[in-house]
Amino acid sequence: MTGKEDLGLSLSLSFPHSHHLNLTPSSANTCSSPSGVPLQKASWNDVVSPPPYPSSGYFPATEARTFLRGIDVNRLPSTVDGAEEAGVSSPNSTISSVSEKRSEREANGGIIDDEDGDTSRKKLRLSKDQSAILEESFKEHNTLNPKQKLALANQLGLQPRQVEVWFQNRRARTKLKQTEVDCEFLKRWCEKLTEENKRLQKEVVELRALKRSPLLYMQMAPPTTLTMCPSCVRLSVPPTVDQRSHHLAQTYHRPIPIRPLAHGLCEGLRPRS
DNA sequence: AAGGGCACGCGCGTTACTTCA
DNA sequence: ATTGAAGTAACGCGCGTGCCC
């Protein structure tokens, strides 16, 4: 594995789904990004659906076997079908789960010995095929239940702990990448809004100037940006803003819901009864 | 029913190691 | 051959959750 392409990390500023920029998470346990890509369990709003999470058949076994042909499993070939058996491990991972690791830590007084008595970690490099299979699996679901973890570990000839660690690191990488993308998106969005604000302020100044000279004011064309809200018949957010936001959203391949906010402004202008 | 202990999984930050320019 | 940066496997810790007693 050499680059981000191999990791499937090519997150871009294009947003294929109709996510709305709703900055109010709909539930307490939401975890997503402004760009609407669900990171872990939930999303920014209910419109955003998580990727399909198949309840069974989490990994196509035949494809896996095809992948596994000629695979370097960093271990003795006879152990591929029974990685969880005692004494079978990759060089740097002798324990299959965090809890077991913790137990062992406690038992050894914090010192972990391997066969060589060497306490330094020997880093394993996953083979291309192993990484590819893990990637495929991650695409289908970014977390594993214990059964899935064990099955995948068996398929790859790795310790369940290694699969677990790989998924944890992979989630972290995804999140980091998404954060970068979101930062870039928000930066550009902010720039656009600043531009828009400047333009509108300029327009206000011009309109005020025109208003001060009645003759010109009477002759001028109807306002191009100010209009009436059709629902509450009050001065509303200019449709051009909406159009521009639509254009902006199209630029980023993602619609931004200015309209609800605009209507909220109208609501704010409604006389209190 | 409430609460403590335990196991477990996850996120996060970090470390140690590998690879490559 | 050396070196620094980037990538990543592995680790340690804290926290939340579910289960059991």
Automatic annotation (TrEMBL):
- Compositional bias per record (Low complexity), positions renumbered to this chain: 89-98
Q: Where is the Homeobox domain?
A: 117-177
Q: Which UniProt keywords apply?
A: Coiled coil, DNA-binding, Homeobox, Nucleus, Transcription, Transcription regulation
CDD domains to which the protein is assigned, alphabetical: homeodomain
Q: Which family does it belong to?
A: Belongs to the HD-ZIP homeobox family. Class II subfamily.
InterPro entries the UniProt entry points to: HD, HD-ZIP_Homeobox_LZ_Class_II, HD-ZIP_N, Homeobox_CS, Homeodomain-like_sf, HTH_motif, Leu_zip_homeo
- DNA-binding residues: 119-178
Protein name according to UniProt: Homeobox-leucine zipper protein HAT2
Q: Name one GO cellular component term.
A: nucleus
| Compartments it resides in | Nucleus
Region Disordered, as annotated, extends over: 81-122
- Please give the superkingdom of this protein's source: Eukaryota
